[in-house]
Amino acid sequence: MADPSHIQSAASKSIRPFRSSEEYLEAMKEDLAEWFNTLYDLDIQVDTFLESLETGCHLCRHANNVNRTALDFQERHPEAAARMRVPQNEVVFQAKNVVPGSFIARDNVSNFIQWCRQDLGIQDVLMFETNDLVLKKNEKNFVLCLLEVARRGSKFGMLAPMLIQMEEEIEEEMRDQMADGTLGTGRESRDPQAGAYPSRARPITLCDLKNLDELVREILGCCSCPSQFPMVKVSEGKYKVGDSNTLIFVRVLRSHVMVRVGGGWDTLEHYLDKHDPCRCAALCECLRDPHPRAPHLGTALPPGS
């Protein structure tokens, strides 16, 4: 269950003037930092997230942990594993006295990247290069790659970041509803501890959806137009938006209101920036005049850009 203090502060933090693409990455880094800290008893901070991982040591150690978990899964569930890509090549790395930016650090990161590509088969669009981490050139792709690594590991029963747990909860809910022919209406009762795989390290933790509608309304209320962008609650955590009645899933992640979009996540603010005509117009005006007299929502790039 989400921390009530986080729930109460989510809207006020989310609707502050803020580049929504930056908040999108911030939410993911927070989630990944907590995940790494929980798995390996570390103390990675969000503000120094890349610096904490740039030697490649923690990354390679995690890769080998995924290998061990995957092989254990294969032994216990051979039929399920036969339909999955099971990584097993050990990642060789140096763990002691590694200086950030050194050849050894680069070699560690390169070995992790090679494992991601060859053993996990992660597609190039989600991959990063050595300099993206060592020289901090492409934070977004590094974060997206780590999330994909976590997503693959969760299939073998590893503890997953909260975003991945919420993905699995939504996907399971969609499967249940499609089987019942009720997609879009929602079943309000389900087992929150039901996982897709029998070896999950921790049950899926659902966020508190009771206050979600209030948060959504507050964020929508940033627009003062007489006719606001339509966003109608269908059931807990599900909304229809715009004239097309597109169905979206919304969740609270700590201080962020997140929207499930395609195969990934976005913040609700960034989603509205791209779909609410009023906000789109405000962003265009902000681009034309970088020093407006009244505060506008920040300019942003979509997560996939």
Task: Describe the overall structure.
- There is one protein chain.
- The protein has helices spanning 4-14, 20-40, 49-53, 57-76, 78-82, 103-118, 130-134, 139-154, 162-180, 212-220, 268-275, 277-288; strands spanning 231-235, 238-241, 246-253, 256-261, 264-267.
- It starts with a helix and ends in a 17-residue tail after the last helix.
- Strands 1-2-3-4-5 form a five-stranded antiparallel sheet.
- By secondary structure, the chain is of the alpha+beta class.
- The longest helix has 21 residues, at 20-40.
- The chain contains twelve helices and five strands.
- It folds into two domains: 18-161, Actin-binding Protein, T-fimbrin, domain 1 (Orthogonal Bundle), CATH 1.10.418; 211-286, Gas2-like domain (Metal Transport, Frataxin, Chain A).
- The chain is globular, with a radius of gyration of 21 Å.
- Strand 4 and strand 5 form a beta hairpin.
Keywords:
disordered C terminus, about 300 residues, actin filament binding, 2 domains, CH_dom_sf, GAS2-like protein 1, 12 helices, microtubule binding, cytoskeletal anchor activity, Actin-binding Protein, T-fimbrin, domain 1, Metal Transport, Frataxin, Chain A, alpha+beta
